[in-house]
Specification:
Layout: H1 2-40, H2 46-69, H3 71-79, H4 86-112, H5 120-143, H6 173-188, H7 195-219, H8 223-229
Helix pairs in contact: 1-2, 1-3, 1-4, 2-3, 2-5, 4-7, 5-6, 6-7
Length: about 240
């Protein structure tokens, strides 16, 4: 009996924060829905619900990939309590604002009809492209045990260079997926005006890629050799 109680006590410090982290991530999906549907002023917006579904799938995939294999990283990503570079904090704040602005503008566009109706086929293709962007991010997350939300060298985890999966082709595949998602979702939502914050968010991600890559060159052992073997940050043959 004493041993069973000890085991339960050992598990609870890990289990309770994980439950809280999952709930926090789930609330993020609710926030996405609010920022879409309140500006739209209606609930019968199919593509709005499709985007909420994509966010929910990403949250679920992150939990399914990380909790069994790397719960510490999941907690770090969900709670965002680990400090990174100052410039990264600033960029992430602006990216968060552009994401919210994209949802709000798309919702207002649906309400007031600023954009002429886009072909449904184009919106469906954009939804598929957005899903592929998230799939690429999930692939990168699955093979990279150091896939933090903040830019930092994770000495506490013994960070090393990751060369498997999509990292064989570009050095920052997670950012490729993010940029694809940012550019595809305004078209999916049928709002050309939402492309403005979408493009701005994608541009900030490119800046973040450059600065993170420079940080890894300077601070992560073995990264320069990896960069010689995989010379492109985001697009093979281009950059």
């Amino acid at each position: 009996m004493n041993r069973d109680l000890t085991e339960q006590n050992d598990e609870s410090p890990q289990t309770l924060p994980l439950i809280g982290a999952v709930l926090r991530e789930a609330m993020g999906v609710v926030v996405v829905a609010v920022t879409l549907f309140v500006p739209a002023g209606r609930l019968d917006w199919v593509m709005g619900w499709a985007l909420v579904g994509l966010y929910a799938l990403w949250v679920a995939a992150t939990a399914l990939v990380l909790i069994p294999n790397n719960p510490e990283l999941y907690l770090e990503r969900a709670t965002r309590r680990v400090a990174g570079k100052t410039w990264d904090t600033v960029i992430l704040s602006f990216i968060g604002l552009t994401t919210m602005a994209k949802h709000v503008v798309a919702g207002l566009d649906v309400r007031f009809g600023w954009t002429v109706p886009l072909p449904l086929a184009l919106q469906l293709v954009a939804m598929g492209v957005a899903a592929l962007g998230y799939a690429l991010m999930t692939w990168a997350l699955a093979v990279n045990a150091f896939f933090s939300k903040v830019v930092r060298i994770q000495e506490d985890r013994g960070q090393r260079v990751v060369t498997r999966g999509p990292y064989r082709f570009v050095r920052h595949p997670g950012y490729v997926g993010t940029i694809v998602f940012e550019l595809a979702t305004p078209i999916m939502l049928g709002s050309l005006w939402a492309l403005i914050p979408g493009v701005l968010g994608a541009s900030l991600t490119v800046v973040r890629t450059y600065l993170e890559d420079r940080t890894l060159h300077e601070e992560l052992e073995g990264y320069e050799e990896y960069a010689r073997r995989v010379p492109h940050r985001l697009l093979p043959g281009i950059w």
